[in-house]
Amino acid sequence: MRNPLLLKQMNFSSRKIEQAVEEISRLPGIGKKTALRLALHLLRRPEGQTDALAAALVDLRQNTTFCSTCHTLSDTETCSICASPKRDSSIVCVVEDVRDVMAIENTGGYQGTYHVLGGLISPMDGVGPGDLTIDHLIQKLKDGGIEELVFALNTTMEGDTTNFYLYRKVKDFDVNLTTIARGISVGDELEFADEVTLGRSIQQRIPYEQSLPK
User: Fold this and answer.
1) CA-CA-CA-CA torsion for 69, 70, 71, 76, nearest 10 degrees?
2) Contact 71, 115 (CB under 8 A)
3) Closest C-alpha to 212, from 149, 146, 166
4) What is the pLDDT averaged over residues 168-187?
């Protein structure tokens, strides 16, 4: 366990190293000792590698956008998944964020498209339906062409709350509502599920109504 007092007393021989450590330690899960090791590692690497990393981070921040169709992160206005003629646009998988898109894509077992909510309903965290892309999802359903909506949210309290809210909003549309099979344990997050389990869960999806408490 890190000693907070020790970290506060960390002395630097270089103001530039101190600044680098301060910025790196802002990343999630990175303490100041780890940040210092990373900063020193970058100094030991060839200058070109550090420049390439810096350029990639700037490019990531300045040139990454959200797909106008599904809201996943993309290099272009329409992501490669939505733009692919090989994808079945009549099936839309609803997920929390881009990490879940990547997790499902890595299974190789899903050929539909996605809708990224950008979070989950969580009153404790001040996140309500209006903070998510739910209105755009409703508009997609009104526009037609969607035959199945797959709820693939984390099996947490927030995920189940969001699933049920969506169900109440879309149940009157002429669309099949399904959810991933519970091969994913309650409380698990999709990004941490192994590919085989997640792949089976999405392939063996069930009608959403069957997942509701009796």
Assistant:
1) -60
2) yes
3) 166
4) 78
Distance separating alpha carbons of residues 118 and 131, to the nearest angstrom = 8
Q: Which are the contacts of 93, defined by CB distance < 8 A and separation ≥ 6?
A: 104, 110, 112, 113, 114, 115, 150, 152, 202
Secondary structure, 3-state, 61-96:
HHHCEECCCCCCEECCCCCHHHHCCCCEEEEEEEEC
- 154 confidence band (pLDDT: 50, 70, 90): confident
What's the number of CA atoms in the CB half-sphere (13 Å) around residue 108?
Answer: 1
pLDDT confidence of residue 7 = 45
Q: Which domains does the chain have, with CATH numbers?
A: 4-63 (1.10.8.420), 66-211 (3.40.1360.10)
Does 196 have pLDDT greater than 60?
no
Give the integer Cα–Cα distance in Å for 99 and 97: 6
| pLDDT for the residue 6 | 43
Q: What is the model's pTM?
A: 0.77
Q: Return the ∠ at Cα 179 (arms to 177 and 183), rounded to 5°.
A: 160
Tell me whether strands 176-179 and 206-207 are parallel, antiparallel or unpaired: antiparallel
Q: What burial class does residue 167 get, using C-beta atoms within 10 Å of its C-beta: 0-12 exposed, 13-18 middle, 19+ buried?
A: middle
Whether residue 207 is predicted with pLDDT greater than 70 in this model: the reply is: yes
